[in-house]
Amino acid sequence: MHVTRHAPDGCPALVLNADFRPLSYFPLSLWSWQDALKAVFLERVDVVAQYDTVVRSSNFQMRLPSVVSLKTYVNHMRTPAFTRFNVFLRDSFSCQYCGANERDALTFDHVVPRSKGGRTTWDNIVAACSCCNLKKGGRLPAQAKMFPARKPVKPTMFELNERGRAFPPNYLHESWQDFLYWDSVLEP
């Protein structure tokens, strides 16, 4: 057992819904060790797996949780927030005009430009690389002869979670393997 004498910042806890599925895949639902301990003490979660790392106080010691499950189910039917990240996730982090996967160079593009009455909504925004966005400019798709690969629509939380499964995180603790579904990443 590893006893830590400093803050164990490398010990995040995977957060599962009450049905033992992650709350989200991308970003992966993780809590800091402090938030996980707080939830344990407030009896909001059950500890499913633990790290070997122990934290101590003057009258208490506990192994840090590596996987926790919520005691109350969180419904995924809620409407996802309209954010830059969620638009990029919906569009698989690729330009909807040329297909480029340049995460750092992605921008929002209004399919119907704002100058032509287009609004900033799920059904009028697509991910576009900087080059395509500049090339299309303030023109309609037919004028620019540039059409999105997929029609932009408002996704569900379930769809965003499913899309996020295609983007496994860089770090996966071995205790999380039974709860995640990136088989090719998890195999030795």
Q: Helices, strands, pairings?
A:
Blueprint: E1 2-3, E2 13-16, E3 30-31, H1 33-41, E4 45-56, E5 61-70, H2 84-90, E6 106-110, E7 125-129, H3 130-136, H4 141-144, H5 157-164, H6 183-186
Keywords:
single chain, about 190 residues, alpha/beta, five-stranded mixed sheet, 6 helices, 7 strands, about 20% strand, disordered N terminus, disordered C terminus
Textual characterization of the structure:
- With 188 residues, this protein is an alpha/beta fold.
- The protein is built from six helices and seven strands; from the N terminus they run βββαββαββαααα.
- Strands 1-4-5-2-3 form a five-stranded mixed sheet. The protein has a two-stranded antiparallel sheet with strand order 6-7.
- Strand 4 (45-56) and strand 5 (61-70) form a beta hairpin.
- The two termini are 24 Å apart.
- Residues 1-7 and 183-188 have low confidence and may be disordered.
Concise description?
The protein has 188 residues and is an alpha/beta fold.
Sketch the major β-sheet.
5 strands, mixed
Helix content: 10-25%
Q: Which regions contain 5 or more consecutive residues with pLDDT less than 50?
A: 1-7, 183-188
Widest beta sheet: strand line-up? 1-4-5-2-3
How many beta-strand segments? 7
Which word captures the global form?
Answer: elongated
Strand proportion, as a percent range, falls in 15-25%
Structural class: alpha/beta
Order of SSEs, N→C?
Answer: EEEHEEHEEHHHH
Write down the overall mean pLDDT: 87
Helix count equals: 6
